């Protein structure tokens, strides 16, 4: 018997200002805003999507706490989201054309991944990449 498919996972980020966060993902990272509300004059929740990637965001009156800001003295997982992309070089070129400020530029890392990091408007660290291939 085959397992039912799961096609997407969507992190939910606590943000300071939902309209500003939505605009960042739309204008710099090429996501589509698929929901903002609950009404035009009260936007405290939103969703952006690009391909199978979805990010939900909500303003709840507290400061965002991105992973890289936590000091647990046991090593750290810097990324708040990992987005698998088959061609990180092409995506990095697209983002560069949108004047995205890369937190870590395109390259191969010690975990045998090829990709790059971007920090969003609230400081969440996004990694866009894939496992490295020979001469990646």
Short recap of the structure:
With 136 residues, the chain is mainly beta.
Describe the structure.
This protein has a single domain (12-131), classed as Roll (2,3-Dihydroxybiphenyl 1,2-Dioxygenase, domain 1), CATH 3.10.180.10. It is 15% helix and 38% strand. It has 2 helices and 8 strands, in the order βαββββαβββ. The protein has helices spanning 18-27, 88-97, and strands at residues 12-14, 32-39, 42-50, 53-58, 81-84, 102-108, 113-119, 125-131. Strands 1-4-3-2 form a 4-stranded mixed β-sheet.
Give the helix tally: 2
Content-based structural category? mainly beta
User: Any idea what the CATH architecture is?
Assistant: Roll
**Which term fits the overall shape?**
globular
Number of strands: 8
For the termini, the CA-CA separation is 37 Å
How many individual domains?
1
Can you give the mean pLDDT? 93
What Rg do the Cα atoms give? Answer: 16 Å
Q: How much of the polypeptide forms β-strand, as a percent range?
A: 35-45%
Strand order of the largest sheet: 1-4-3-2
**CATH fold descriptor:** 2,3-Dihydroxybiphenyl 1,2-Dioxygenase, domain 1
CATH class: Alpha Beta
CATH homologous superfamily classification: 2,3-Dihydroxybiphenyl 1,2-Dioxygenase, domain 1
The largest β sheet comes out as: 4 strands, mixed
What ranges have pLDDT less than 50 throughout 5 or more consecutive residues? none
Helix fraction bin: 10-25%
Return the string of H and E elements.
Answer: EHEEEEHEEE
């Amino acid at each position: 018997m085959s397992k039912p498919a799961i096609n997407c996972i969507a992190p939910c980020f606590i943000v300071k200002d939902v309209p500003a966060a939505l605009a960042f993902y739309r204008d710099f990272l090429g996501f589509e805003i698929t929901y903002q509300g609950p009404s035009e004059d009260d936007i405290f929740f939103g969703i952006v999507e690009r391909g199978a990637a979805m990010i939900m965001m909500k303003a709840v009156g507290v400061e965002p706490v991105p992973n890289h800001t936590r000091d647990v003295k046991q090593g750290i997982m810097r990324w708040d989201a990992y987005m698998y992309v088959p061609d990180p070089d092409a995506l990095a070129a697209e983002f560069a054309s949108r004047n995205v400020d890369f937190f870590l530029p395109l390259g191969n890392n010690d975990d045998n991944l090829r990709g790059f990091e971007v920090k969003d408007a609230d400081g969440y660290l996004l990694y866009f990449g894939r496992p490295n291939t020979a001469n990646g």
